[in-house]
Amino acid sequence: MSCGNAHETDCSEVLDHLYEYLDQEMSDDARTKFKEHFEECHPCLEKYGLEVAVKKLVKRCCGHDDVPSDLRSKVMMRIELVRSGRPGAEGDLRADVSSDVAAGTEAPSA
């Protein structure tokens, strides 16, 4: 997505890292750069606003479910593998979650 205007920070970079911004998982310099982008780019600001609303809705509706610790550990381990760039890590996670569901050890549904 791009608004068609030139920005110091490209729209695609902002949208690729939007969740890191939302979760405050980036440096202060990067956050400042993204904030400046939102101030000058209406389409990205709208996308940001939509994601904030979705995140609040999910927290309100699903934020009280306990996740089994073994499932949480598996997910966190896979996230680290994906971040490290290991090929196929995303598929491994789907297989593990599928096997947990088949075994009846998945997280309770809301």
Automatic annotation (TrEMBL):
<dbReference type="Pfam" id="PF13490">
    <property type="entry name" value="zf-HC2"/>
</dbReference>
<dbReference type="InterPro" id="IPR027383">
    <property type="entry name" value="Znf_put"/>
</dbReference>
<feature type="domain" description="Putative zinc-finger">
    <location>
        <begin position="11"/>
        <end position="44"/>
    </location>
</feature>
<protein>
    <submittedName>
        <fullName>Mycothiol system anti-sigma-R factor</fullName>
    </submittedName>
</protein>
<dbReference type="InterPro" id="IPR024020">
    <property type="entry name" value="Anit_sigma_mycothiol_RsrA"/>
</dbReference>
<feature type="region of interest" description="Disordered">
    <location>
        <begin position="87"/>
        <end position="110"/>
    </location>
</feature>
